[in-house]
Write a sequence for this structure.
């Protein structure tokens, strides 16, 4: 056999890249280039902060989040996920600003030493809408883009394969590590660690659980490193990609337009316009 | 009175997987029981009910006559010690000795009793000389023996081992066998999940075979590895030990271990 | 080589100047006149952090133009570091989410992975780990772990990674066990001096006007008590760690205490303007109650978030650096030694295996 | 004359910061199309020898090496790892740590190696299908690598190596963590590769598996090659137990019968047939 072909004979019939690799999304919005969706999410979030006030972010959300979500058919899930994401912050933000807004006179409500003020309410609403805008924009991206699609697109544009590797591997490591933490908790409980007792007993359980999660993962680093280097990982420079998400000059133009618009908005805000 | 009793045990995982489909099993004190069967046959799910890590969907589990559902995992841990298959899922202490002390300390043991139990466990696992070593400086096979020692030191009436010989060499397997013999010798119960048919045939006096969440065979190695039930074994991806195959081929009856085959040949 | 550093330095200075001029009045209530006042101080730190990132980008661009590659940076990214980073990102996100969402503790515990990679592989690797952790935590990680504000604080994580890398490189995280009592006492005193010094400076600069610890009639009594309580907790934490110095007889605990508190202060400086201006001082974690307390005591939004940061961040980074120190101590020696900065974390550097006779290292 | 492909002459290795060497004066050859089995007690040096032959020690693992390693007569000391990995494929014991964790399908996982080599896309795809077909797992191409059994994951890792088109395979205890079904799955695959003329160095505790696939076997004890020779002779050598190695079942049974004075023709004939 020719040198190098020792282990595998010639392929029976030529088969191309299977269709499940880079399968296009269900809707037009899904099929947009990942960088376009990432840029619009980031610009929407920053713009919501820069515009401030109440009406601005609401209009922004309707245009940049609700509209596309409807088109992509993910509005239901978007609302649920975005609310779940925003809830912890929104509640705290609302309460803190409502009751603790300094220098406010118009007292709406007084409960003992704490007073709810109109100015506080106004600011609280502003922060609430801003937080909803940010989590809406981020959730829209999360629901319509596979992380691997964004990293392969960035890699095509010249981002180092190593950075793309870390991003992709992190996405798979988080759920794997949560599962590992569950197994470790079971193993320690089997050795008498009481995780159902008082708070103090549970705090004592932190080291026997967090310890193996970290040390167990680090113990695997050695073998993972060797396995990667045994498959040519150390070869410098770009690598071949099986596919790359489609992009168009129109989308590229749109991305630049968004960025320039954002810069202009921030510059205007800093210059004190419109107040 | 049975030390461990499982009645009509059913367990359905939240994904809908019916891992146990009505299991009845009684294990007396001092018995040595091997639990074998293909991965996914429900072996690990069953043993996790013995120390309360899993609670039954239907049916009952009793330990020393007490219903396990009335006891917390921490309470059951003083009765049923469970050694997990992957040592890296539990090791956290900086030294071998500290890792072995973790279990007994949780059970409230201290002082000379604790020190004796720990030293004895380390001795049995062949780690007596490594008390101050960092567990992660040990090789994979000795870390597995460390995990075994860390439960052994708890001196629980019931000791459950999940694939103790996987990844061990000849000397490691021999050490595990010696530990099972010693623990059973003290009248304590040993239950082990294993795929090593020779280790099972030579070390355990009762073999329970599982398939798809049910018990399909339960008896001495002689009965479970006899030729007439080989198709049942193969239905759960198990091959009888070579000694049993030869015993059948030479028509000298059921000979699950080398010793039993030789003895039958010498008598024949 | 020098050209790159000059270009990077120039970029750093230019960005700071632009920042001071434009972001001086950071959108809401920061007066350019009292630039070095409370609000100005923390904006300045944020501008410095952004300038640091710009300097790095310029450095990389110049190196790329000169050599067509990024060897000096890439060398910190051997396969072992690349394999460790996703684990570090996952540790940040899982522990951070558990503390913030589940336990509502007034600390974050979301930079253990960042500091671990920084210490083992260097400032740039630490910075990238921090940046990716925060970005992925918002954009990519599914609920219940997803955290909205994390991406905005990416810059803070970058700086924490750099500081951890420098601490590791300087050998400060190298164990120094069994030191005589005298040495421990001196180390302990120096650490206390630094921490108390910073504490007093921070108190006089950023707390005195609005938060009268001493006379309760100026503010509501509950907040004076709360103020004393928080001050005591902070002091307890610092003294507790210094006590560990004598229990473990390991001088490095003093180093870890100082590095932890200093990193915490810098992180507070940078995160305060972001928290104030982007999220109105509230990020959903346990720290929001502190902000509320300071707001009720009459501090404006900017100051309140800053005062909260000055308390939680140093304690959080103190705990985090100590956890990382314990993890490094528990790691197998062989594994640690193989990381780019691994040698500097070993207790005794040990005899470098000289290439004597036929024994030789890898050439490729 | 058999083409001498991998040969180690007086090779020693010591880990960084270790007290003593893990490998001493190893002379070993892996000829074209040969399957060399490696046995020995835990921590005797099997894994270290595998890492040295594959080049991962000292390149990736650090430490220091001595002696000379040649591939088809050429000294490989100066070769970088990504060049060596195209001539020698290395498999490990734990299936999970061999997955790259950056792919969502078996096809992309097996293509990972060739993609790193920046080969033309069509060749990457061709090599990937060929590797999957040669191990008969092309039906798993669309599956999520994390959701497979241990045996299947080990086959995917093996396919990932084959896609690099190495001339040689070095496998460190491939079935150590697998159940009987997985061991049979991987054992059969290695047997088919050996039959196709692949040269393989495989370390294993399960000597029954080695007896079926190896032409030669070497015994490692305390970092030295204590014994090497034709598989049948070495695996029947009475000193195996002293080296902490379990003999294959037929050898063990035959010896037990002999020592019990049973000279039963039918037994020896049955043992021969296995």
């Amino acid at each position: 056999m020719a040198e190098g072909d020792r282990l595998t004979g010639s392929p029976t019939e030529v088969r191309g890249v299977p269709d499940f690799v880079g399968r296009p999304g269900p809707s037009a919005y899904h099929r947009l280039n990942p960088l376009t969706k990432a840029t619009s999410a980031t610009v929407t979030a920053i713009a919501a902060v820069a515009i401030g006030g109440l009406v601005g972010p609401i209009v922004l959300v309707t245009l940049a989040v609700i509209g596309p979500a409807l088109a992509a058919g993910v509005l239901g899930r978007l609302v649920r996920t975005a609310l779940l994401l925003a809830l912890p912050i929104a509640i705290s933000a609302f309460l803190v600003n409502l009751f603790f807004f300094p220098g406010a006179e118009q007292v709406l409500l007084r409960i003992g030493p704490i007073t709810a003020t109109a100015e506080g309410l106004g600011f609280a609403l502003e922060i609430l809408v801003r937080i909803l805008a940010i989590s809406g924009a981020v959730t829209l991206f999360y629901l319509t883009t596979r992380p691997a699609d964004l990293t392969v697109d960035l890699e095509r544009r010249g981002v180092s394969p190593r950075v793309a590797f870390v991003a992709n591997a992190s996405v798979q490591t988080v759920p794997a590590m949560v599962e590992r933490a569950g197994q470790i908790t079971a193993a320690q409980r089997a050795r008498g660690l009481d995780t159902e007792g008082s708070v103090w007993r549970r705090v004592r359980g932190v080291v026997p659980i967090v310890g193996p999660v970290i040390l167990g993962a680090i113990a695997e680093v050695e073998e993972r490193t060797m396995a990667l280097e045994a498959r040519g990982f150390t070869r410098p420079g770009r690598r071949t990609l099986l596919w790359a998400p489609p992009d168009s000059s129109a989308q590229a133009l749109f991305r630049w337009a968004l960025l320039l618009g954002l810069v202009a908005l921030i510059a205007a805000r800093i210059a004190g316009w419109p107040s | 009175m049975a030390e461990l009793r499982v009645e009509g045990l059913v367990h359905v995982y939240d994904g809908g997987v019916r891992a146990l489909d009505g299991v009845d099993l009684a294990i007396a004190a001092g018995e040595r029981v091997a639990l074998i069967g293909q991965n996914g046959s429900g072996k690990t799910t069953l043993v996790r009910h013995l120390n309360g890590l899993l609670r039954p969907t239907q049916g009952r589990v009793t330990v020393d006559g007490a219903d396990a559902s009335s006891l917390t995992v921490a309470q059951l841990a003083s009765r049923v010690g469970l050694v997990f298959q992957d040592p890296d899922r539990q090791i956290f202490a900086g030294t071998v000795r500290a890792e072995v002390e973790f279990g007994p300390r949780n059970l409230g043991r201290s002082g000379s009793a604790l020190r004796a139990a720990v030293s004895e466990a380390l001795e049995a696992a062949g780690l007596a000389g490594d008390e101050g070593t960092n567990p992660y400086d040990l090789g994979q096979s000795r870390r597995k023996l460390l995990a075994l020692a860390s439960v052994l030191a708890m001196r629980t009436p019931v000791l459950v081992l999940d694939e103790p010989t996987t990844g061990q060499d000849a000397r490691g397997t021999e050490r595990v066998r010696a530990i099972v013999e010693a623990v059973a010798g003290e009248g304590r119960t040993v239950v082990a999940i294993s795929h090593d048919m020779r280790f099972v045939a030579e070390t355990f006096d009762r073999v329970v075979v599982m398939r798809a969440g049910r018990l399909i065979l339960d008896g001495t190695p002689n009965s479970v590895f006899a030729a007439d039930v080989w198709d049942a074994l193969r239905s759960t991806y198990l091959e009888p030990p070579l000694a049993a195959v030869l015993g059948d081929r030479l028509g000298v009856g059921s000979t699950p271990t080398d010793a039993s085959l030789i003895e039958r040949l010498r008598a024949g | 080589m020098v050209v790159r550093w000059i270009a990077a330095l120039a970029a750093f200075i230019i960005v700071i100047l632009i920042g001071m001029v434009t972001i001086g009045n950071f959108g809401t209530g920061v007066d350019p006149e009292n630039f070095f006042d409370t609000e100005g101080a923390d904006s300045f730190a944020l501008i410095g952090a952004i300038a640091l990132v710009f300097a790095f980008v310029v450095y990389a661009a110049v190196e790329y133009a000169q050599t067509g590659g990024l060897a000096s940076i890439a060398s910190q990214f051997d396969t072992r570091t690349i394999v460790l980073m996703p684990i570090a990102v996952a540790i940040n996100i899982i522990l951070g989410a558990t503390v913030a969402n589940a336990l509502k503790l007034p600390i974050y515990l979301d930079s253990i992975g960042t500091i671990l990679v920084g210490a083992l592989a260097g400032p740039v690797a630490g910075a990238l780990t921090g940046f990716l952790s925060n970005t992925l935590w918002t954009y990519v990680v599914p609920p219940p772990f997803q955290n909205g504000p994390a991406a905005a604080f990416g810059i803070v994580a970058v700086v924490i990674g750099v500081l951890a890398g420098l601490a590791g490189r300087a050998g400060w995280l190298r164990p120094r066990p069994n030191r005589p009592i005298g040495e421990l006492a001196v180390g302990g005193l120096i650490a206390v001096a630094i921490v108390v010094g910073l504490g007093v400076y921070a108190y006089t600069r950023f707390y005195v006007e609005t938060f009268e610890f001493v006379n309760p009639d100026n503010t509501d009594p509950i907040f004076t008590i709360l103020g004393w309580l928080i001050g005591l907790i902070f002091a307890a934490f610092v003294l507790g760690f210094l006590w560990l110095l004598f229990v473990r007889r390991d001088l490095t605990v003093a180093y870890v205490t100082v590095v932890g508190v200093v990193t915490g202060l810098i992180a507070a400086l940078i995160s305060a303007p972001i928290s104030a201006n982007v999220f109105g001082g509230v990020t959903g974690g346990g720290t929001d109650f502190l902000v509320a307390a300071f707001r009720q005591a009459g501090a404006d939004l900017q100051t309140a978030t800053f005062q909260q940061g000055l308390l939680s961040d140093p304690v959080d980074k103190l705990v985090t650096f100590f956890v990382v120190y314990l993890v490094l101590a528990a790691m197998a020696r062989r594994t640690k030694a193989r990381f780019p900065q691994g040698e500097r974390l070993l207790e005794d550097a040990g005899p470098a295996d000289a290439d004597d006779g036929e024994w030789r290292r890898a050439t490729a | 004359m058999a083409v001498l492909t991998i040969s180690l002459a007086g090779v020693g290795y010591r880990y960084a910061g270790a007290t003593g060497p893990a490998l001493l004066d190893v002379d070993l050859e892996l000829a074209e199309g040969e399957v060399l089995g490696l046995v020995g007690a835990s921590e005797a040096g099997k894994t270290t020898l595998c890492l040295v032959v594959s080049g991962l020690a000292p390149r990736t693992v650090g430490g220091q090496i001595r002696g000379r390693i040649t591939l088809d007569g050429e000294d490989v000391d100066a070769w970088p790892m990504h060049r060596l990995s195209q001539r020698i494929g290395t498999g490990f014991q734990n299936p999970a740590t061999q997955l790259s964790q950056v792919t969502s399908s078996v096809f992309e996982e097996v293509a990972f190696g060739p993609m790193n080599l920046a080969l033309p896309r069509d060749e990457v795809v061709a090599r990937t299908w060929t590797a999957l077909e040669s191990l008969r797992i092309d039906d798993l191409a669309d599956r999520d690598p994390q959701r497979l059994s241990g045996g299947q994951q080990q086959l995917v890792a093996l396919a990932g190596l084959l896609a690099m088109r190495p001339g040689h395979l070095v496998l460190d205890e491939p079935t150590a963590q697998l159940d009987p079904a997985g061991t049979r799955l991987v054992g059969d695959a290695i047997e088919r590769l050996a039959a196709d003329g692949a040269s393989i160095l495989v370390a294993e505790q399960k000597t029954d598996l080695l007896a079926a696939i190896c032409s030669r076997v070497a015994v490692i004890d305390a970092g030295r090659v204590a014994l090497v020779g034709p598989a049948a002779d070495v695996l029947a050598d009475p000193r195996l137990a002293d080296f902490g190695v379990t003999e294959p079942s037929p050898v063990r049974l035959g010896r037990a019968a002999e020592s019990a004075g049973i000279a039963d023709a039918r037994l020896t004939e049955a043992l021969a047939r296995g």
